[in-house]
Specification:
P-loop_NTPase, 6-stranded mixed β-sheet, transport, about 300 residues, ABC_transporter-like_ATP-bd, elongated, 10 helices, binds adenosine-5'-triphosphate, alpha/beta, 4-stranded antiparallel β-sheet, about 30% strand
Length: about 300
């Protein structure tokens, strides 16, 4: 089976001359949740808009479920559901009519049972006769998702699904995305919340300045690039790191009481046992020791800095 989405050598230069995307290659497998992570202006929305056919590209090829977006535009677009960043709804229309209408726009025959299923899944069935203006912000977002699902797409784009949303609603959204995936949907979400990528994604792509810096299995990425830190809380403050500890990469906190050792968690010899032994010999006593793994955030900041 072809990848659900295949992007090769994608480039976009806006009329202003700004290069929003350059040489982007991306292949998305069916059934995965892929997070495209990048700061403001990285090119995430541009990429989605090109795949959905609302922005033209300057270079590259794109296929959706094997359909070229130029030569088989309709077949490709039919397979995509898009939930844009901004809520855009006819405020006077009811929830049910909004979703039915959206399905009609794709030339699909009415299917009341399917529409009922998605409205139930999104906890909107009880509100089906409400006008969208009467709904809370969270419900409006769910109506946007119902609209995007109305024509039975295979690939769902969520552009910043939780931007400006409170913590509870964010968690609801995450649960919902997982439910959709369980039903076989492939999901690409863009976010600048690293926590969101860490929480949800199977794979993560990091984009910055229009370039895809890396695409990696999330767990592997965190294993590969994740550093561990050992923090020792000393019994008495040190004024400086003793010369006898020079072979370890240590930092001393300003209070002199916390000694921090960063090491590669995957290395065969982490250097930690030897360090503790040396501290013992030097008579440097500690009250507590704590290890932590670097988060996706640390990894991301590192990558972006390296690229810059
Ligand atoms: N129509 C346009 N004309 C010129 N430049 C544009 C246009 N649309 C976007 N850009 C620029 O292209 C770059 C990428 O924008 P894009 O909206 O794709 O970023 P993004 O990663 O989605 O950012 P955000 O997280 O803020 O939504 C930005 O520098 C933006 O200013």
């Amino acid at each position: 089976m072809p990848a659900i989405l295949s992007i090769e050598a994608l480039g976009k230069q806006y009329k202003s001359g700004h290069k929003a995307l350059e040489g982007v290659d991306l292949f998305i497998e069916r059934g995965e949740i892929f997070a495209l992570l990048g700061p403001n202006g990285a090119g995430k929305t541009t990429l989605i808009s090109i795949v959905c056919g609302t922005v033209t590209r300057s270079a590259g090829t794109i296929t959706v479920a094997g359909h070229d977006i130029d030569h088989a535009r309709r077949e490709a677009r039919q397979r995509i559901g898009l939930v844009p960043q901004e809520i855009a709804l006819d405020m006077f229309s009811t929830v049910l009519n909004t979703v039915r209408f959206s399905r009609g726009l794709f030339g699909k025959a009415p299917d009341p049972a399917y529409i009922e299923e998605i409205l139930r899944d999104l906890s909107l069935w009880d509100k089906r006769h409400a006008r969208t203006m009467e709904l809370s912000g969270g419900m409006k977002r769910r109506v946007m998702i119902a609209k995007a699902l109305s024509h039975e797409p295979e690939l769902l784009f969520l552009d910043e699904p939780t931007a400006g949303v409170d913590v509870n609603l964010r968690r609801d959204m995450w649960a919902l995305v997982r439910k959709l995936r369980e039903r076989g949907m492939t999901i690409i979400l863009t976010t600048h919340y690293i926590e969101e990528a860490e929480e949800m994604a199977d794979r993560v792509g990091v984009i910055n300045g229009g370039r895809l810096l890396l695409v990696e299995d999330k767990a592997a990425l965190m294993r590969k690039l994740g550093k561990r830190q050992l923090t020792l809380t000393l019994q008495a403050p040190l004024s400086a790191i003793p010369a006898e500890l020079a072979e370890w990469s240590l930092t001393l906190a300003e209070d002199g009481l916390h000694l921090i050792y960063s090491f590669d968690a995957e290395a065969e010899d982490t250097g930690m046992p030897a360090l503790l032994h040396r501290l013992d010999r030097l008579g440097i006593a500690y009250r507590d020791l704590d290890t932590s793994r670097s988060s996706l955030e640390d990894i991301f900041v590192n990558l972006v800095e390296q690229a810059a």
